[in-house]
């Protein structure tokens, strides 16, 4: 898994998926069946296929509230206010912005694909789910990475937020 002591290899061909109910269902999305799930005590999830030199999917969620006197929030407004004016409203009502960053980790070039997914909980409250998918830059254009990236993007775009915040 990239970003830790091990890494994450791309999924070959069609793979069975499993639903992740992150933090009790706060966000629900799919990952390939063989991937490992790890959760950090203070928040955040890490998902990866077992093995060396594999990619890593990370998720962090924040909930933001503003005073009721400020007017209603929209997902596009939230993304614009945090520096991501290029966004799209999805068919499920969530707003999404995405991009790519490149950097190095321990001297090795890496590519980070990211998505900010905004769900309006109420006129004054939103949830922002940030997904990142990190690969070694040398494998960024491989057929297996492209296929896995397509799976991840589809999963992010179709992610659901639980109305009650995952508290069951």
From TrEMBL:
Organism: Massilia eburnea
Official protein name in the record: Uncharacterized protein
Superkingdom assignment: Bacteria
